[in-house]
Amino acid sequence: MCNKQGAEVLATEGVRGYDYKLMAEDFIGQAAQRPTKKQACFHAVLSFHPHEKPEDSRIVSIAREYLQEIGIANTQFAITKHTDKAHLHVHLIANMVNNEARSIKDNHIGLRGKKAAQQLTLKHGLIVAERKNLALTHQEALDQSEANRYKIYTAIMESLPKCRNLEELKARLKTYGIEVLYKFKGQTQERQGISFRLEKDVFKGSKVDRSFSLGNLEKTLSQGQRQNPSQAMGATNPIPLSGHGVSNASNPAGQLAQELENIMLQSTGNLLSDLMKPEYVPQGVNPDLLREARKKKKRKRLR
Fold it and tell me: Residue span of the signal peptide, if any (predicted)?
């Protein structure tokens, strides 16, 4: 996080921030006090909208609040700013073994982090990014894996409006060199998930974009067929990928992408509203057990 171009350590606690190798030694030394702790390193990225350029002091304040909100306190941490992409972002590294050699609880930390980010966005009046904007993405600044993920995203966005089903989508993506992979339930042919492979990189659909999970793709294709079946029937050849963002004004692919986004918003609902819905999981309860209990209750009612 520290030893790359465009990286600047803004603040640290309990570690030597002037040398990343010494910083690593400090983190490792404290984590060693709890050798049974499997995940002793916490890492998160807080990204700002490309139009936002907050001062360093404000970034540090937001990052500190974020750590406090998710229960990471009285421990070592480092806040590092990166400016290698169009959007300013900071990497947070914290020790999950605190200054008293006690383990910091990490149950449901992903959910807590999501809620904290939402609250801080509203509290500090930051711009909410409801969905990807490729026009603001500098793909040339991405590493190869991230660049491939964005290529997959662009290819799906350009192809979906021309497809009536997943088989047609699979055929169109093949022309881009993208392979569609399915996850099946047990030994059956029932599809449970979808992934996309480009070169050596494989991404789950939801990792490319939350609207590209198997369920959401099926909803989008179904919705698109109902709204404009003639468009899918009269589809043309895919438009080649470019290294630049989609422009609706001059790029036909951009127009198709905008139409697809409108369909997605109607079929899956406003993304921001979905994110702001409260999610509650009792502390210390395994979510898998809760799901199993609900299934058993449903089966019992059916009997």
Answer: none
